[in-house]
Amino acid sequence: MARRLLCRAVGVFQLSGTSTPLTGTRFYSPTEPEPLTVRQQSNGIRRIILNNPKKRNALSLSMLESLRENILTDVDSDDLRVVIISARGPVFSSGHDLKELTSAQGREYHTKVFHTCAEVMTLIQDIPVPVIAMVDGVATAAGCQLVASCDVAVATEKSTFATPGVNVGLFCSTPAVAIGRAVPRKVAMEMLFTGAPISAHDALLHGLISKVVPQERLEEETLAIAQRVCQASRPVVALGKATFQRQMAQGRDAAYATASKVMVDNLALRDGQEGIRAFIEKRKPVWSNTAEKAHD
Fold first, then answer.
1. How many degrees, rounded to 5, is the angle at CA 123 between CA 119 and CA 126?
2. pLDDT by residue (tens digit) across 164-192?
């Protein structure tokens, strides 16, 4: 198919009703295997697409390494403002590739798989820009963990979420780290003990995802969130994201101490003062998008 995204030297990213050239897309010959993930970037928005639908976008070691590379590439560039993770095919991700988890692979290989997976999930929360999961289909086990690890998650009405590892003798202990921090404990435990899937609407009710939309509006709604992020100051968003993650791991009093100090630090930023001046002067702020300080 001539129009297949992966076979275009230059793609088109639909944004606000306009067509914008993409960066990060390259030509693949008919004999060259398609990459496990695809990275595209335009107007501050990076799209990372899980690209192995024949294997249900399983998070094999190679897939995880590719995803890690796509997340880390130029992650500190001022041109990057938000990341969207999506997938090709009817399955967002089925989780780990069980063929990699047999005794034939051995303990050392298994350790590398889960270490790399944990690294990717923590990277998503540690990088300075928001990460949005755009889900259209099934997300199970480590695939559900991936959704839970993202800062924001938008899903279609047909999407489902599950941690079915218990049914194949492998309790979803690592997915439980992210899921247990996203949904109430008893909901997480029921998912983990039974492996039963929950609907997108139940996932929204319990806090696993942010929004449920009709399939035809998934792209539009996700990009709308991404574009709103791009309108804010990059260093302010980065400071806010890092602080949120840090204070959530603390007790109440320590969290207030952390957040109060960061509010003062935020006010010292040039963009912090620009935002306040713009509000007082009833105009749109002009962000520097740098960590430059207005005062000590």
1. 135
2. 999 999 999 999 999 999 999 999 999 99
pLDDT for the residue numbered 206:
98
DSSP letters spanning 220-253: HHHHHHHHHHHTS-HHHHHHHHHHHHHHHTS-HH
Q: In sequence order, which residues have a C-beta less than 8 Å from that of residue 261 and are 6 or more positions away?
A: none
C-alpha neighbours within 13 Å on the C-beta side of residue 151? 24
Q: Which two tokens stand for residue 252?
A: 């109440």
pLDDT digits over 86-95, tens only? 999 999 999 9
Q: Token digits for 93?
A: 């991700």
User: Shortest CA distance to 272 belongs to which of 247, 238, 245?
Assistant: 238
**Residue 211 dihedral angles phi and psi, to the nearest 5°:** -155, 145
Tokens matching residue 264: 């003062």
Within 76-157, where are the H helices?
107-126, 142-149
Helix (H, G, I), strand (E, B) or coil at 5: helix
The predicted pLDDT at position 267 comes to 97
Q: How far apart are CA 270 and CA 292, in angstroms?
A: 6
- Tell me which residue of 267, 271, 295 sits closest to 285, measured CA to CA: 271
Which structure tokens are listed for 156?
Answer: 């279609």
Q: Are strands 37-42 and 45-50 parallel, antiparallel or unpaired?
A: antiparallel
pLDDT band at 33 (very low <50, low <70, confident <90, very high): confident
Residue 23 DSSP class = B
Residue 77 makes CB contacts below 8 A (sequence gap 6+) with: none
